[in-house]
Amino acid sequence: MMAMPYTFSRLDASDGLSDNQVQHILQLPDGRMVFTTLGNINLYDGMRFHYIHRNDSDVYAIKDYHGHYHVYAGHHDRLWVKEYGKVWCLDLRHEQYLKNPETVFLETGIREKVTDLFVDSEKDLWLVTPKGIWEAKKKRYLLLPKDAGELQDVEVSNDRIYLFFSFGEVICYSQNQGKPLYRKAAYPENERTNYSRTSLVVKGPDGNFYQVRSGKKSGLFVFSPQSRTWRLLLETHSPLHTLIVPSHDIAYISSLNGIWSISLPKGKARFQSSLRTTDGKQLQTDLNTIYQDRQQGIWLGTGNRGILYTHPERFKFISTPTFEELPLAPHTKGENGIPYKHPTIFQGQSYNDVYTDRKGRTWAGTPDGLRLFLPCQTGFRTFYTEDGLPNNFIHAITEDAHGQIWVSTSDGISRMSINEKVDSAWFTNYRYEDGTLKGEYRNQEVQTLPDGRILMGGVDGWTLFHPDSVEIPHKDFSPLLIGLSLYGEPIHITPSDSINSISLLPQAPPYVKHFEFNYRQNHIGFDFSSLNYAWPTHTYYRYRLIHSGDSTWHVVHPQSNGGIIDHKGNLHLAFSLLPPGNYRLEVMASTQSRIWNGPVTEITFIIHAPWWLSRWAYATYIFLLLFLAVTGIRLYVRQTKRRILRRHKEDILLLRIQHLIERCDNYEQQVSIATTRACPPQEKEEPPINSTDSDFLNKAVELVEAHLNTPGYTVEQLSKDLCMERSGLYKKLNTLAESLWSRKLPISADRGKIVDRKGRVLADNITTTSLVVIPNQIKDKEDTAKKLSEILKSDYNDMLKHISKKTSIERVHPEGRGLSYDIAEKIDALKIDGVYLVKESKRYYPYEAVLSHVLGYVGIDNQGLSGLELFYDNYLTGEDGSIKYFSDGKGHKLQLSEIYEAPTSGVSLQLTIDLDLQLAMENELDNVVAKYNPDSVIAIAMNPKNGEVLAMSSRPNFNSNEYKNYSTEVINRNLPIWMTFEPGSTMKITTYTAAINEGLINIFEDRFNDSGAIRVDGATLHCWKHGGHGNQTYLEVIENSCNLGGYTGTFLSSKMLI
User: Fold this and answer.
1) How far apart are CA 174 and CA 787, in angstroms?
2) For 330-334, what is the mean pLDDT?
3) How confident is the model at residue 502, as a pLDDT?
């Protein structure tokens, strides 16, 4: 009996493998297979091989590894590949090698040079350095013994760490504490050199560790963690490579010339030097590696024949080139070894084969489909590849014990199941990959044997099988996205340094679950693999694309038209002209087309709408439509209101003219009364309009009065009679009416502030209250005058004059200006029509007498009267505001909205004065006055570099807030500016120094004639010595303290400065 009685299929370089020398095999967590060859790392997804080129710069040297190829699957989707003395790391997500694997080591916290590495079954990284072995997960060192040889394998199990060494020992550590618990040797010390070269440890399903060791000899050892004992299962002098332990009962080991199978309970081993392949041949080759995937499939890596694959449940068909090779009893064979043939004539027509089943249904094979004739019915139904057949050419037909129909075709064998109503049929197809003949079958050559087996003959041999043994088991798979395409062109991973702002495929397809496309990228293809390595041609898919409420599932089978499922069982979906929106693609895979209980793979993607179809664009369109609609409605309403208002204005225009007439009549009456009374003349109110406007108004009045009773006389006709447009006439009359009816209550503006060089306020404003009256609105003038004079403590007759003036508005001055809060409150409490309190701005000097002569002061009307207040009055003075109200021709207030005209403050003035220096100077001057009581004191502080005045003061001074309490001799004389004075001895040393420094004078040679007096700017200056000092040098001028010579030096120095 063979050690491995399976039939293998082959994959090699012709199928896309980089080369045929396979060194190591591994399965990734997503189900893909990894094949390491001498040339590269190959990724296999069931559809194609894909490998990534590496450079010498990608390699990291590890001096302590002396074994062969070993591949580990680590965290973060990385593959670590070790070869003698070196290691490299493959980033599966981006399908590129890490340029510097040392960066990964540094991320774990290690700084020492790594000499070897391992990855345990939990994907955790272990790094060997001269200090020990570094556990990356817990960032700690485990000390390694120096008497155990080289570390060759690391495994973890049940909170224990197992380290396997080249001397055959295993040392067990506590995973929590990191301390060694025990160490056990697999063989005595004298055997170390026999097995010290390589080691491979596999954790078996029974919890034991199985180790293949090689050196001078090779052996299979098993270590039981429970009993802490080793046992030798196999010893041989030929090299052993890798092993698998698929069950508690058996283990397989690849070797140089074949494969070993070891019975674990009995400890017996069998060697098999050849393997049966799907073409019926026996293959002899070196086997470098063996691996069992999660579907229980077995993969073999050969020395030069590529990859061999088998599954215990595959290849149940027995196909042989000759009839004699079949395992049949002689009595089952027909005459001359040819099975019995069915008649081929039915209803007068010849067929390839005809078969009537146990239910009386007749099946007829044709070159183009399988026909079904039902009893007692005329006509027939034909089944084609569209219904599930592998091929339309039907050669032979038979029935199994379960009533299922089996047919041979030009492309394999098919089993058909049909329901009672004969309205639904299911096909299971078997091809060369399942063990059937690769060529075409023959007509009528089929027979169901007594033991239930079915025999079918073909051009290239015979096929024998039992229907129950070839049943494909129900398996569910998790489909894996393996490819993406746009308009039929595959999309590849975008390099990390791509200039594209958006990457369609930033990582390998299996790792991407969401995509984003623009509106032009709406022809999208998705490739899925079920990773069904055992029965790829028996893979059924179910998918649905969820969008806008559509959630219909679509089931596709391997025989579907359009190549949706290829011959390797991979699904190719293509969606065309997809509108913008959010999509979710769900895919399932199974070996049964009617049972869907497996996992669902979800892929989401967005097709972004063009900007003119985006949500923002639609929102903008809606907004614009609403805006246009609202604007249209508003314009319509506005035009309608304008028409109504225009008609209304035309109706009241005549009434306005009548009010103008009344106003003018009232003015004429006032003039007449004023000229006929025998009393002193009073102030007359200014005429409301000029003579030109009066003539225009008189003409308009004449026209209106002439046509008051004329039917149909409108404003349109009036404007024509006045030679004006209607709109111009309305504006003209409206302006005249407003000028006649409007009155203004003044609001004084704030003067601009005066501040020092640092922005500190030297002159500010405060708000006060003043009294104004509108005589025409006061009904009882005598009583009002009495009440106001009592509150203001002023003369009654003066107040009555204010109230009785023929003017629009009268400001009560001076007794009504700057009222206190209490007085203003009393006046307001009177509630007399025509009596108003208005707010006014008053100048205020927060530092009172400080800098008083420089700042000056303002009058009661806030006008500058002296100092800077006077000099810059045009800039400091603001523009007054007002409250405009309207009254009729008799002065009565109209119920119209008042108009507020805000005042405009004046421009602020910033000085070069420094308030700190100014206050210091003021303090010093006060001290001088208190100590010496001089007639006057003056002081100026200047910046000699630019001439800026920093402080200026004099005595006597005054409080600018109360300037009326001081004499004009004090308030109107700014002594530092007004007075003329000699520089004095304090200035001579300064000016002379400057003149000498600039070379303007020579104090030893240049001379000055002192006559005793000199004229300067209209003033005569005298020397202190009567008659002067005569002719003298400038040195003598200094010695004699001659002010006249000092002035000359000052003049020269000033020229130098200029």
Assistant:
1) 109
2) 56
3) 55
Both tokens of 926, joined, read 């006060």
Residues 526, 532, 534, CA angle at the centre, nearest 5°?
150
Percent of the chain predicted with pLDDT > 70: 87
Q: What is the DSSP string of 657-709?
A: HHHHHHHHHHHHHHHHHHHHS-S---PPPPPSS-HHHHHHHHHHHHHHHHTTT
Please name every residue paired with 968 in a beta bridge, in sequence order, or none if there are none.
none
What's the rounded Cα separation, in Å, for the pair 245 and 480? 27
Tokens of 127: 């790094």
Three-class SS of residue 978?
Answer: helix
Q: How far is CA 601 from CA 159, 344, 544, 575, in A?
A: 34, 49, 11, 17
149-153, 204-208, 414-418, 557-561: range with lowest mean pLDDT: 557-561
CA atoms within 13 A of residue 1006's CA, in its CB half-sphere: 15
| 206-214 contact pairs (CB < 8 A, 24+) | 206/248, 206/264, 207/157, 209/155, 209/162, 209/164, 209/170, 210/243, 210/245, 210/251, 211/153, 211/164, 211/186, 212/240, 212/241, 212/242, 212/243, 212/253, 213/168, 213/186, 213/240, 214/239, 214/240
Weakest mean pLDDT among 120-129, 353-362, 898-907, 908-917: 898-907
Averaged pLDDT of the chain = 85
Contact 809, 743 (CB under 8 A): yes
DSSP track, 511-543: G--EEEE-TT---EEEEEE----SSGGG-EEEE
CA atoms within 13 A on the CB side of 863: 2
Q: Which of 287, 282, 293 is nearest to 307 (CA)?
A: 287
Distance CA 42, CA 69 (A): 14
pLDDT 10s digits, 38-82: 888 999 999 899 988 888 888 999 999 988 889 999 999 999 999
**Alpha carbon distance 346, 366 (integer Å):** 12
User: Using CA atoms, how far apart are residues 560 and 417, in angstroms rounded to an integer?
Assistant: 18
Q: Which residues contact 157 (CB under 8 A, 6 or more apart)?
A: 121, 203, 207, 225
Burial label for 339, CB within 10 Å (0-12, 13-18, 19+), is buried
- Sign of the CA dihedral with 977 first, then 979, 983, and 985 last: negative
How does pLDDT run across 748-759, given as a tens digit for each residue?
788 999 999 999
Per DSSP, helices labelled H in 942-1010 are 968-971, 975-978, 985-997
* Calpha distance 667→1033 (Å, rounded): 86
- SS3 for 254? strand
- Average pLDDT (496-521) is 78
Output phi, psi for 543, to 5 deg: -145, 160
Q: Is the dihedral of CA 843, 845, 850, 851 positive or negative?
A: negative
Please give the model's pTM, rounded to 2 decimal places. Answer: 0.60
Give yes or no for a contact between 153 and 201, defined as CB atoms under 8 angstroms apart.
yes
CA atoms within 13 A on the CB side of 2: 12
Is 50 exceeded by the pLDDT of residue 239? Answer: yes
Q: What is the largest CA-CA distance in the chain?
A: 174
Side-chain-side CA neighbours of 402 within 13 Å: the count stands at: 13
pLDDT at 579: 92
Give the DSSP per-residue string, 390-426. S-S-EEEEEE-TTS-EEEEETTEEEEEEE-TTSS-EE
DSSP state at residue 178: -
- Do 650 and 642 meet the contact criterion of CB atoms below 8 Å apart? no
User: With contact defined as beta carbons under 8 Å apart, do 1028 and 966 qualify?
Assistant: no
Q: Amino acid letter at 26? A: L
Give the C-alpha distances (Å, rounded to integers) separating 589 from 251, 292, 476, 481, 592. Answer: 31, 22, 6, 12, 9
More confident residue, 638 or 498: 638
Q: Higher confidence at residue 992 or residue 906?
A: 906
> Is 347 or 717 the better-scoring residue by pLDDT?
347
The pLDDT value given to residue 958: 93
- Asked if residue 956 has a cis previous peptide bond (ω within 30° of 0), the answer is yes
